């Protein structure tokens, strides 16, 4: 089961890494929102899933009892709330950028 | 009816969070859930209507497909971010398109699904027109193919 945890956490780290690189490399505010707002969703989800799996078999009093199942359910709840809050926050920041008149980068404009 | 449903959902959530099933903790939960249900019971379900159970089941079936799409799109954006020819591959543009969804809840579900899949962000909804910012051409084509909209419409029986 540790293998599963390692795969999930490594996958999550990869998406966080890609999101950070994207944040540095993308040309403007809006494109950077794509990198950070979303890479974090899947990255965080995978890491949380990995932790939940690990806790299910190693948490509580020796693993796989009521306490460890409840803790894993609580960990999954964190992921659920990230999935609800993240798109809403991304949309709010994006809309605020549009409303305050930040000009989007376009391919034609850069030439 | 919806007050009872609200109370049951709150109480199950309380039990999961408390993790203790003796009389003392359960009665604390009953008291606080009753107070919350009394104060804000009309927030969770706005109006009671038929077919709610079917919508919940369809929504749960929709989630695995959404996660699959999120993974696909995330890999696409990760490849764009790491590609040396990034500035040739991306083509950010704001697009507007009309949708056939009717109720507010289905529009919100669709808008949040769009924002969750990387590469597309819903900027605004005006009536039945969506303003969406797409990062590159493939993700925009995916969105305009309308598969996600059909699945969302199917959840709320609007297809």
Mean pLDDT of chain B: 81
Tell me, briefly, the overall form of chain B.
elongated
Count of separate DSSP helical elements of chain A: 3
Q: pLDDT below 50 for ≥5 consecutive residues: which ranges of chain B?
A: none
Largest sheet: number of strands, sense, barrel closure of chain A: none
The fraction of residues in strands of chain B falls at 5-15%
- Rg result of chain B: 21 Å
Short description:
Chain A is built from three helices and no strands. With 111 residues, chain A is mostly helical. Chain B has 159 residues and is mostly helical.
Describe the structure.
- The complex is a heterodimer of chains A (111) and B (159).
- Chain A is an all-alpha fold.
- Chain A contains 3 helices and no strands.
- The radius of gyration of chain A is 18 Å and the shape is elongated.
- The N and C termini of chain A lie far apart (52 Å).
- Chain B is mostly helical and 159 residues long.
- Helices cover 63% and strands 12% of the residues of chain B.
- Chain B is built from 7 helices and 3 strands; from the N terminus they run ααααβαββαα.
- In chain B, strand 2 and strand 3 form a beta hairpin.
- Chain A binds chain B through residues 14-15, 18-19, 21-22, 25-28, 30-31, 33-35, 37-39, 41-42, 66-67, 70-71, 73-74, 77, 83-84, 86-88, 90-91, 94-95, 98, 104-107, 110, and chain B through 16-17, 19, 70-71, 73-74, 77-78, 80-82, 86-87, 90-94, 111-112, 115-119, 121-124, 133, 135.
């Amino acid at each position: 089961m540790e293998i599963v945890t390692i795969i999930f956490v490594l996958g999550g780290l990869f998406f966080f890494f890609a999101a950070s690189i994207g944040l540095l490399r993308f040309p403007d505010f809006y494109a950077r929102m794509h990198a950070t707002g979303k890479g974090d969703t899947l990255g965080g989800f995978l890491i949380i899933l990995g932790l939940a799996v690990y806790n299910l078999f190693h948490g509580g009093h020796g693993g796989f009892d009521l306490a460890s199942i409840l803790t894993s359910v609580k960990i999954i709840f964190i992921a659920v709330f990230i999935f609800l809050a993240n798109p809403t926050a991304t949309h709010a920041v994006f809309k605020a950028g549009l409303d305050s008149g930040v000009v989007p980068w376009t391919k034609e404009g850069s030439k | 009816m919806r007050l009872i449903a609200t109370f049951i959902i709150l109480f199950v959530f309380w039990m999961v969070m408390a993790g203790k099933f003796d009389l003392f903790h359960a009665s604390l939960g009953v008291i606080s859930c009753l107070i919350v249900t009394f104060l804000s019971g009309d927030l969770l379900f706005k109006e009671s209507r038929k077919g709610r159970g079917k919508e919940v089941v369809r929504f749960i079936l929709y989630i695995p497909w959404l996660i699959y799409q999120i993974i696909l799109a995330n890999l696409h954006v990760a490849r764009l971010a790491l590609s040396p020819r990034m500035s040739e591959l991306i083509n950010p543009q704001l697009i507007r398109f009309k949708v056939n969804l009717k109720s507010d809840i289905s529009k919100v579900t669709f808008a949040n699904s769009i924002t969750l899949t990387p590469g597309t962000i819903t900027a605004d909804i005006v009536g039945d027109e969506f303003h969406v910012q797409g990062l590159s051409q493939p993700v925009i084509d995916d969105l305009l193919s309308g598969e996600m909209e059909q699945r969302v419409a199917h959840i709320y029986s609007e297809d």
